[in-house]
């Protein structure tokens, strides 16, 4: 039996992944830590370009999956991991910045959240529970906190979601339609699934 159980929270930008992850982490306290896929975003010069020359931060190639999957394996084995915290700049062209290194401890539960957290097969193999938050496009865009530039949304965000994120829903153990639910209700459904699978 692994020393650490991994819970994945996936879904499109604005679906509520961070809100759910933070809510669960708050409930679980010292029993849980959080690993964010955003912190594995490659720096600007390594992010692929669209045909028009824009940086495509929503493509799988913009994520360092080699380190991400390696850290999942380490956490599952009970080893803490060092992660470079990424902070998003004001514009897409500015990319992401380095906000320092943090240690993610291998607690009994590690909550893994990210838009492409269900995309890589090596990551999929490590999750004890995977949850996909399903939300309609209009709601996700309304909630999106960063880079609402209409050109980026049309050229990158929407097609990348349809091509790489939406299809990963089929890999989730639990799909939650968040459109008509409060944050508390989403959290309750997720916690019930954690409890049902005896992950605590």
Can you summarize this structure?
With about 200 residues, the protein is of the alpha/beta class. It has a single domain (about 5-195), classed as Rossmann fold, CATH 3.40.50.300. Helix content is about 30%, strand content about 20%.
SSE string, helix = H, strand = E? Answer: EHEHEEEHEHHEH
Structural class: alpha/beta
Q: Can you say what the CATH homologous superfamily is?
A: P-loop containing nucleotide triphosphate hydrolases
Indicate the mean pLDDT. Answer: 90
Whole-number count of domains: 1
CATH architecture: 3-Layer(aba) Sandwich
Radius of gyration, in angstroms, nearest whole number = 16 Å
Low-confidence stretches: none
Could you give the distance between the termini?
13 Å
Largest sheet: 5 strands, parallel
Strand order of the largest sheet: 2-5-1-6-7
> What is the tally of beta strands?
7
Residues in helices, as a percent range? 25-40%
Report the β-strand fraction as a percent range. 15-25%
């Amino acid at each position: 039996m692994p020393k650490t159980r991994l819970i994945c929270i996936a879904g499109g930008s604005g679906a509520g992944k961070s809100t759910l992850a933070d809510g669960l982490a708050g409930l679980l306290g010292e029993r849980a830590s959080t690993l964010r896929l955003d912190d594995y975003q490659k720096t600007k010069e390594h992010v692929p370009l669209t045909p028009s020359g824009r940086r495509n931060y929503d493509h799988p190639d913009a994520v360092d999956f080699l380190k991400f999957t390696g850290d999942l394996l380490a956490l599952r084995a009970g080893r803490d991991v060092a992660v470079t915290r990424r902070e998003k700049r004001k514009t897409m062209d500015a990319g992401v910045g380095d906000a320092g290194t943090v240690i993610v401890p291998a607690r009994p539960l590690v909550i893994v959240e990210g838009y492409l957290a269900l995309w890589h097969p090596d990551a999929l193999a490590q999750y004890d529970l995977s949850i996909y938050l399903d939300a309609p496009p209009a709601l996700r865009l309304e909630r999106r906190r960063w880079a609402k530039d209409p050109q980026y949304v049309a050229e990158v965000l929407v097609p990348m979601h349809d091509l790489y994120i939406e299809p990963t829903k089929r890999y989730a153990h639990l799909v939650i339609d968040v459109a008509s639910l409060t944050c508390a209700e989403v959290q309750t459904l997720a916690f019930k699934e954690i409890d049902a699978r005896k992950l605590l």
